[in-house]
Structure formats: C-alpha cells, structure tokens
## 1
Amino acid sequence: MPHQCTNCDRRFPDGSKEMLSGCPDCGGNKFQFAPATSEASDDASSGEATPATESKQPADATATADQDPASASATSGQAPDREWPETARRPAEKDGRLDGSFADESPAEAGTDAMADDFEWVNGEEDDAQATARSDVVSPDELPRTATDTEAVSSRTEGATTDASDGTRETDARDRPDDGRVVSEPETDQPSIDQLREELNQQFESIKIVNPGQYELNLMELYDREEHIVSLQEDGRYVINVPESWHDS
Amino acid sequence: MGLLKGLKDSISRATDRLFSDEEPKRIGIYGPPNAGKTTLANRIARDWTGDAVGTESHIPHETRRARRKENVEIERNGKTVTIDIVDTPGVTTKVDYEEFTDEMEKDDAVRRSREATEGVAEAMHWLREDVDGVIYVLDSAEDPITQVNTMLIGIIESRDLPVLIFANKIDLDDSSIKRIEDAFPQHQTVPLSAKEGDNMDEVYDNIAEYFG
C-alpha cells in the first residue's frame, strides 16, 4: 500500500495499475510513496501515509466501534474493501476545506468522515502492520468517554476546526493513552535506511542511491519514464507527477 | 532608435504574433554540469529582454530546477524570432555530495546533491515532453566524448529535434573547437564565450536560422 494520492489521500497497493491513469476518484496526478515498512517518526500532519498514521487507524476504528456497537462489525469487517462511502469526504469537498473550516459540520459527522476516509482501501489489501494493529483491540477501560472519542478522532485527523470547543478536543486527543502507545509502536520494526534504499532502488531503476547524497542515474530510463519524478527523499519516499495524457486516455 | 520607431516596431511584432498560429518554440539549453548553460541563458535573456534567468556559479549543479524565460524576441536581418529559453540542470550520470563539501557544510552538500539529482530527472523529462529544439552547450576546454554527451545527443537525434552545439568557453587557453567539431560532425558547432560575450552575433544568427 505504498502509494497515496496527494489530492484525496486515496491509497493504492504496490503495483496497482489504477493510479497509472491518474486517481480514479479525483483525477489527481500526483502520488506520494510511503513504503509499508518506512519509519514512523514523520509528522503525521504532513499527510504522508506513514505507519504511524496507519497504525492509528485501527485504534480509531475500535474506539468508534466501541461507541456504536451496531457499526462495529461493519467498520472492522468491511473496511478493507470498502468503496467510497456515502459519508466519506469527496475530493472536491476536501479541497474546499483546505482552509480548515469545518464549522458547518457536527463533530460526530466529522469523526465518521475522517474514519471512513482513513479506511478507504482500494483492492482489499492490508499490510501486516495494519492487520496486527487491527487485531490488537484495546480494552474499554483504556478508552476515554465515548462522547469525546469521536471528537478526538475528528480533531486529530483534521487538525483544525472552527468549533468553539476545539481546544478541549485537542487535549482529549493527546491525553488518550492508546493514542501515544500506538504512535510509538512501529518503531519496533523500523527498517534500516539501507533497507529503504534497497526498496527505493527496486522501485526506481532510473535513480540509484549509493549513499545519502550520492546517486547514480540511468539517463535512458529517466528519459523513457512517462511519469515525472518531482521529489526524492533519502528515506525511500518519492513523489511523481503522472502526465495529464494518462488521465485523458 | 527613436521612440516612435520603437513603438511602431513593438506594435508590428505584436501584430505579427497575433496573426501567427505558432507558439514560441521552447529551446532547451542542455549539457553537462558547469558547461556554462546558465551563463549562456543569462547572456541571451539580458541581450534581448534585459532580465537574467538564473544564478551562475563555479560550483557544479547551481541550477537544480529547469527555469524558463518566455518570449525572448531575437531580431536578425529584419526578422524577429520569438523563443522560450529553458535553462536546465546539468545532466550527469553521477551526483556526489563530496563534490561540494569544499564549498559548504555536509548537510547542505547532501541536500544540493539530492536536488541536483531531481534536477537531472526533471531535465530528462523536459527533453521528452517539452522542448522543440536544443542548444547543447559544451565546455570547449573539456573532452566532449563522454557517456552523457553521446547519450543525450543520441536521444535528441532520435527525436529529430533541431540541435545546435555551442562550444563555450573559447576564452580559455585549453579550448579546442575542433575537438568538438570532430566529436559531433553531424551537427553545426558554434564557438562562443557566453561569459565574455564573444561571437554572440554568430550565436544569434544560428538561433534565428535553426529555431525561427
């Protein structure tokens, strides 16, 4: 699941051909790469699909499911192959919300939307970290009051709202014991930079990272690629720009 | 040139373009690092628009993003040729931060190296997608027969793009125009010094002829 649309956050499994013609949902042609085993130290707010943000999703789901037993089985059972849910934010809506204004939306709706967005999987594939975290159910004692739980999901995921109780929500989200535990979990199986580099090299025949700051380039491969590499990072991530013509065809 | 004549010429040029279906041709300035591509781009842009394109430096890979100067109008023999100049990062098969560590801290050198690599990828992408002609700039004091030069000129030829080879830095003692002419006899080679402004008339004559 290393590819993610930078516009609507839709994720694509490694090797997916869907993204080759642009994002099927929003038409976006920029994707970022986050290896399934990449380190979890990145800031979750950057919007990149790091294991930290992924591993938080099951906790969120569990917490929300606990609040609403009727939806529990639906959340955990259908999440992997769910199509764009009715409640999920559409890409256009999301674009319109980049200014951080959510005043016209109730906290409960925002929480549901955010959760659904996080669980928008394409081909029913789920990586190991995700599966492990999903099966590791927190006990009800560890959960905060259900009334604030959904709000916490909302505030953590969306970052900024214009709701008057915004400050309270942020505090709730940070104080949740499961929240801190989950964030630090992926560090236990954090891959080495060498592994990430090897992974990148497998992805890119055109650029080889010999060492940090030392690259070998295959000019012919770079010329032959239709997509444009716009950003390359030492930790194995990259951003490509898919040509418009792919989307049109 | 009088004010009225200048105004008239300007209106005439605008009218010509208004009724012309052709967009300005995008001319990519390609070549290995430190061949003088940005110096040339700045020389052309300053001569015809008064503006510069980018920063020049003796440290390789100063240009790490392609930069475009649009609507550069070059007048030759009473005709006006309008082109967009694309100054590209130097193309190479290896980028090593240690090249820069004499000039800057390691962290900056590593970042410069990564950006330069992205720049090469971008330059190759532009070559595939976005240029109508190529000015290939070589340092005439260096051996022109390298893997990069051979491969890039081969790619340009495979695309049937019009190409001019500019033998730059003829002001240097080690400069050899013949070495470049012998290496790429199938193409027109134009000697110049972009830094000193030597032989720029011939440069503009050739640009107007090839890309006009």
## 2
Amino acid sequence: MLDKFKSSFREEAEELLGQLESTLLELEDSPSDAELLNAAFRAIHTIKGSAGMFGFDEIARFTHDLENVLDKARAGKIAISREFIDLALRGRDHIRGLLSSGDELTEDLRRTTDALVEECRALAAETEARNEASPGSPGAAAPEQPASGAPGAASEGKRTFYIRFQPGPDIFRNGTRVLSLLADLAELGEATLVPHVHDIPRLSEMDPERCYCYWEGYLTTESDRNAIRDVFIFVESESSLTIEEIEETRINDSRTKRLGELLVQYQHVPPEEISKALSSQKRLGEILVEKGIISKDALDTTLAGQNHAKKIQDKAAEAGGALASVRVASEKLDQLVDLVGELVTLQARLARTSLDLKEISLAAISEQFERLIAQLRDNTMSIRMLPIGSTFNKFRRVVRDLSTELGKEADLLTEGADTELDKTVIERLNDPLVHIIRNSLDHGIESPQDREAAGKNRKGTILLKAQHSGAHVLISVRDDGAGLNAEAIRAKAVERGIVAPGQELTEAEINQLIFHPGFSTAKSVTKVSGRGVGMDVVKREIDSLGGTVMISTERGRGTEMTLKIPLTLAIIEGLLVAVGGEYYVVPLSSVDGCIEIPKEDLRKVGERRIIPYRGDLLPFVDLRSYFEVPGETPDIAQIVIANAQDSRLGFVVDNVIGDYQTVIKPLGRMYKDVSGISGATILGDGTVALILDVNRLSQAVQAESQRKVQAG
Amino acid sequence: MAKDPAPQELAPVGKLFIDTAAELRAALTKAFSKKGSVLFRWDGVEDLDVPLLQLLYAARVEASRTGKEFHFTGIVTDRVANRLYSAGFVSVIPLSGEELESNLVGF
C-alpha cells in the first residue's frame, strides 16, 4: 500500500516540479509578480509536506531550506535575482534527482543536498545581512500572514481573508446594528465567523448599551479587501478592524491537518504540550484551554478555520459535481487502448462473419456494434490526448541555460500550447525538439555583437509553434538567426563524400543534407552540438513516428523547421488494398485519390515509371513487384495516389477494398529493417495486413531512379 | 409535597435593539430575583442586535452562579435565525428556542 502512495507522490511531485520550472522562469522575467513567487513557494511547500509523510526524508530535509529561501523572498527579504532563480532551478533539478534515485541514496546525491542547503542558507544569511544594513530592500514581498488565526479556504477565482472586528464599546449608542453589519459581510461570500463573548460581565454589573463582544473569522469571496472594508466604513474609526488575505497553502493545511498540527504550526502551542495533551482521554482543545496553554479565543478561531476550509471544499465539490478530474496511471490508459484495439479487430471479424452468413439480424447487430466501437475508440483516443504545452515549458529552461552557456541572448516564444496530441507521440517528440532548439541556438542565433552588427536586436527569438492540420499536427521551430549556409553545407557534404562534386542539387535537397548521419558544419565540436548527431536523431525519430521534417531558410533572416506528425500512433483510418493474396493498408491521411488505368498505360519515361494524374506525371510503385507478390497485374490497374513528404506517388494494386479502422501493431524484430512498411494490422478474418510507410516508399522510388540515372 | 414555583417567563415583542436593552436588563434581573426558573420566549422577537444577546449570555452566567434554571422557548423567526447564523452565534439555523439554546456558541 505504501508503495502505491509513494508512486502517487512521485507522479505528483514530477508534475509540481514541471510547473515549478516554468514558474521560476516566468518569475525571472517578472520578478515583481508576487503571484508567481507564491506559486513557486506553494509547489515546494506541497512537495515538502508529502515527502515527509511518505518517508522521502532527504527531499523533506532539502526542501525545508529551499522553502525557507522562497519564504524570505515572499517576505521581501531576498531580492529576485538571477542568482536566486539559478539556485531555485538547481534545487528543483536536485529534487528530481532525489525522486528518481528511489530508496537508494548515493553519496553524490547526499553531497549535492548538503552543498545546496549550504547555498540556500548562505543566500538567506547574506541578503538578510544586506537588508539589515539597508532596510526596505526590493523584492516581491507578500503580505505577512495573521499571526494568530488558523487558515481559511479558497476556491477557484476566489480569495480567503482573515477578519478580526472589535467594535468600539459605544458602537450601539451611535445607532449601529452590528448584526446587520455582519450580515452584510456574509453577503460578500462564504463567511465563518466566531463571536468572542467571554468578556460579557455579570448581569448586575453590565452596561446593557455597551459592546463587550468581538469577532474573528474567515471570508472566501470574489470581492477585494476594499469591498470588505466598505462594510465597516462607518464604524472603522471607532472600531478595530483587521483584514488579511490568507495563503492557499494555509488553506490546504487547514483542510488536511489535525488541530494539534495547526496549533503547533501557528505557534499557539509547543509540540511537547500537544503530545502530553493527546495522552489524555479528553478533547485536545479542551485540555489545552483548561491548562491555560492556549486561550479559548485562539482555539475557537483555529477550529473556525478548519470548519471554513471544509465548508468551502464541500461547496466547490457541490458546484463542480464532485471531482473534476481523476489521476490515472498511463499504463492503464495504454491497456485500455490495447483493449479497444482488440475490440476493433473483433468487430471487423463480426462484420465479416455476418456478411458471410447473410443473416439480417446479425448484420444489424454488427452495424450497431460498429457504431458503438467507433465512439468508444474516439473517446478512448481523446483521453490520451494531451496539450503539447507541457513539453513546450521544458524548452524554456533549455533556451535559458544554453544561451547563457553560449554567451548568447535569446527568448523562446510559444504558440498553440493547447494543441493536443497523443501522449505517446508527445513523449517521443521531446528529444527531437530539444535537438532542433539546441541547433537553432548554437548554429542559428548569432552572438549579440554579430546581431547588432547585422542591424538586428541583440536578443534572438525562437518561436515554437503547434497547430492542427487534418490528421496531423504541425510543430515548427523558427529562429531569426543567420539561416542555413547552402554553400557551406554543400562543401561539407562533398568533403564527407555524401554528394559527388558538381552534383546538381535543389535548395530543398541541400537543406535535407543536414539530416545525414555524421553531417556537421560546426568548426569545432562543442558540448552543445557540432557532432552531427542531433539532426540525424531528429530525422530518425520523426520518421519512426510516421512524420516528416521540412526546412525553410533565408540567409541572414533565419530558419524554420516544421515537423508534421500524425495525431496518434495507436489506431488510424486506413485504405485497405489487395495485391494477389496479400493485403496492405495506406494511411487514409496520406491518400489523395484512386484511379484506374489500363495496364499498358503504366509508362516508363527513360528509367522512370510514371502515370498521368490530374495533369501531372507521377512516379509509382508497383506493390506486386516491390514486395515480390506472385501473379500478374490485372488488365485494368487500380492506383492509389498518396502524398509523401514533398511529393506525390502512386501505388499499383489489384483491388481497392475500402476504408478500414486500423489498429497498429508493431512489427517484430525480424521485420524491423523491411523498407516501406511501418507496421501491421489484423483483419477481421485473422489475416495480417501490412501498413505502408508512404514516405519511405517515396524515398526508395527516388533513390532507385537516381541510381538508374547514374548507372545509365 | 411542595409545588414547584411557576417559571418566570419573559416574552418580549418587536425589534430588540439598543433602545430596549435597559428595559430587558431590568426585566431579567427581576426574573432572577424571584423564585423558579426563568424562560425566555422567542416567538415575539422580530429582530435583534447584540445588546439582547449580551444580556442573554449575562443571564446564563447569572443562572449558573445562582443555580437557577434559565431556558429558551418558543419559535425563532427566520430573520432572527439568519441574523444569528451570519454573525457566527450558531452553526445551524435554529427553528425553536430550545434548538437555539443548545446551539448558541459559548452559551
């Protein structure tokens, strides 16, 4: 059971650390934004709390000091400098390291913890010393929390305030009706007030027109502090009024912590007194009040805070129809997709059987089943769709750290962060995008001096953009750097023997050379790039995703690399075709059209085999001969026209069967090198159909014709 | 067997703000000076403010000190119940005097 909680903690912490990184980077750009600082603090505070609870002691130990630094920054005692952000980011990285180390803590990690803790303490001490010397130093200060109160609770778009209202003794004599004021206050939102009545004297001694009560409590509201103050506007001069906003961390504490923990946390009671009191059979609060350890007022207010938090939480749950989302392990989602895939295959079999049996009632069931399966498939696939923005955030850090390392200045801008893609595709896009962005910074963006000399802004820009395009997503990385140097690329390709001297190449072909294994124009190999491995990896990974990479560049103006990626890798719409006794699937997103032409019209122009299509002449692949399927092409050939990376081509088949929901199954290791096939699927009758890799087939056709031209 | 004295019942009527506080205090003091328990009837209370509540808290202390019974009775109007709820004197909206007595904070 504990393992399950630990695993949940790791997941949650990873998510928080992801958010923390982007928050810190934003904070660096907007150091006076107190909300960002509060968000960073909350992330560390939550990790610290959960780490301690689940036995991640080293994380708890380290986050304590990091939290302390962030807290001092919130109080305006530490300025938000680059040094501060650096330390916080390194701290965040270290927590990730500790998380992934599991239960085995290496000596290295422990040393890193010690070193970072020292740095945190030194930063805190140093800035405090500076502040003492010059009070009122800058920083994104947050208001101090009320010292005595327990926290309230917030819900979305609302804030919680601690309020203490002590009317002046003669307030009634002025005609003020206090209950009416408090009713007005409650109108502003959800209020939990505690009247303190213990100062009311005996009947015989009291002045019935004098006020002896005061109130403390919490208000969760969409209104601001001024609106609250307005309630008391006519009595403020004769009363004592405190209105303080409550931190969300305190709200969470109030929901989750026990009374004893809260009283210790807010320094009402020392921990040892709590332990002593707990050993008694009475209620903790009563014992502490009886012993005079806390006042009845402090106890009542703390309890009111707990009640208020619960009340707000219940209201939010009511409004939102209980939980808005549920965390599910990704393996479970993968299993669900696999099962849906099996159902799709089974449905195809049912359809086939009902057709063979010519049984009307079975056919009706099969059709209904097919509609339901299609809905189930779409719903299941949509569950796996995630916004790509989570990946985008990671790249801000890459740009920040790398530009510093290279002595360059660059901003990363993003667009379309909410564009959704299958989670497995997103995971596999990370490395290619890192390589492209690193390359943009290393080779594209010029040094600040060079940029100024070229009349550009000192600071370069990299724009990372995502958008949907049919069954694909287009992800582009555009920089405003120097652009690709076609002459240098060509010269290097000749030097490396990748192209022959004097060989004619189009601009697009020259640009594609940078994806060749081992290609690099960098004069020296740096830690960042220059080994020519990055762009090769990009091409390979994008190919394996069934995607394409396009480059457009302008000398002196910049380069744009666009990745065209299929939305999902699990189930696709395909066009099922047959050649002899074999079946193939062409991804429907690539299909441009289908035509029939007499066999004798499949012409050869020189060494190139071409077909006429809508006024163009297109190359084609005869799948029978390519895959060595026995038999003859029928007299009337069926041709499927497909869009490849930057061209179109035809596939000659015997028969076009129709569209087909294709559950993609990976090929075994034996078939991993078979060119032109990206996967397989199982048809309704159990037959295996191969899924065509249109881009690879197009490349193979081009390479083959080039070889023949060169040989001829 | 001696018969229990009849309870002293206070049944104020109307809006009980500061202007009625002195009069109520006198009435309560008088009721506590007599024999028998003291009952406060809520039916006629149309509205209230803190002075009345302070008097009731003080009366409760008086009752504890003298060993007298002091209780609420009658129907609590919606307006009064809501006023008490929004000011934090009760955590549930009371319908009757008895219910109010058992829920009034610190009473």
## 3
Amino acid sequence: MLMFDYLANPTRFRKITTAIFPVAVLVSAIALTFGLYLAFFASPADYQQGDTVRIMYIHVPAAWMAMMCYLLMALSAVFYLVWRHPLADIGARAMALPGAGFALITLLTGSFWGRPMWGTWWVWDARLTSMLILFFLYLGYMALADGFERAERGSKPASLLLLVGVINLPIIKFSVDWWNTLHQGSSVLRLDGPSIDPAMLKPLLIMALAMLGWFIAITILRMNTLIIRRRITNLESRKSWS
Amino acid sequence: MVMSHFFNMGGYAFYIWSSWIIGMAILIAITWHSFSHARSARNELDALEHPKQQRDSDA
C-alpha cells in the first residue's frame, strides 16, 4: 500500500520508471543474446526428445511469466478493490496484454512441441486446458476493462474477474500432480529441488530473465501511456464543461 | 554442412523454428503496439496542452 501511495505522484512515478526502463531493456537484451546462444549452441539435445527440447527455452519461461503476470494483476486488483488506488488499476491494465501474449506463446509453442513428441497438436488434458483457461481469462479481463465508454467503469468488474480467476493458478501448477496428464511433471519448481540437468536449467533461467526484463519495460511503457490517456480524458471533459 | 546440420535440428526444424519465430513475433508485435500507442497518446496530449503550437506546426 505504501508503495502505491509513494508512486501515486505522477512526477515521482515517471522519474522512477524512467530510471528503471533502460535497465530493464538492457538486462533483457543481454539475457536474450546469452540465452539464445545457450539454447541453440551450448546446451545438449535431450536423450529422449532430441533437439525439440530447445522449444522448452521459450515455452517454459513464457508459461512462468503468464502465471506470474496474472498473479501480479490479481494483487493489483486487491489493491484497487480495497483501497481504490487508481495506479493499481492502471498496473493491472498495463500487464494484461503482455500476460496474454505469454499465455499465447505457451499454448502455441506447446502445440509445436506436442506434435512431434505426443503425436498430436492438442489434447484436452488438465495442464493444457487450464492454460487455455488462463488465456481466456486474460482476454475476458481486457474485454471487460475496456468495454465501457469511461475506462474507470470497467475497473471493478474486471478486477473481480481477476480475483475469481486466481483459482486457476494452483490448478495449472499442480494439474500434472493431481491428474494423470500427457504433459510431463514439474522438473524445476519442485520441493526437492530441480531434477533438470544444469546444462538445460541455465538457458531456461536466462531466457526467463530476458522475458522478465522485457515484461518490466513494456509494463512501464504501457502504464505511462495509460496515465497520459487518463490525463487526456480529464482535459477533454474539462474542456467540454468550460 | 555444419550450418545445414544446425538448421535441420535433428529433423525437427519445422517445429523448433516455428515455435521460436511465432514466440518472438508475438513479443515484437506487443512491443510495437505498446510503442505506437505511447507515441500517439503523447501526441494527443501535446495537442491538447499546447493547441496553438500544434496548429502552428501543422501550418
């Protein structure tokens, strides 16, 4: 809450985000370059899946980001609904499109990985279906948030949808444990530590860092745009009254 | 020979390259969309805050 109060001042917000933006872009660019090198040249092919394992270096970080992004949006929704903080609403709106992008990348790259390994582009198993639901939740949020003439009117129903959709996150994470699925089990985020080979874990984490940097930079850019848009709306309504 | 071996990706070239191209295309599209929206919003705000300057520059 204190953080939102501190950042509520538009000048302060712009000053802080102007400092963070180039750092996020730089971190993302360096991590992407290094991550691509590791993914394609310095990591081995899998003994069972062969070179298709290289799809993992875009598929898995995108899935992590899609889930993290939704969680952040849901937290923002709590801040908005409880304390009515406009910056929390702006933050959630700014994260929606990158989050939907990550979910779409997860679904499409998963399909391209599934076809040669499982023999099918799609199967209605718990992990794939719950990830598809996450993608629809993003689309639903964006439609609801932007579906009103005055943007603020969509904030409350859209925030409520975010909170309802949070139930889907543990379902995605534990779907491979709770149900018998075609999708492989967790090999990184496990209580007993990662079971994946370190040579594969390294490019995975570096690609995740690249996506995180990109996500921070894009969210900052989109938040600043939304702040400008609200200012435009206020100026226009003031002009129409005078 | 080495290059063709690399691009062939053990016979899975179509699936691997398609995944990466689609993934990167989505990220680039969102980046482009965000930057173009930021630019148009800034231009609109400038036009509202400094209408005279905007008219002069248009002329």
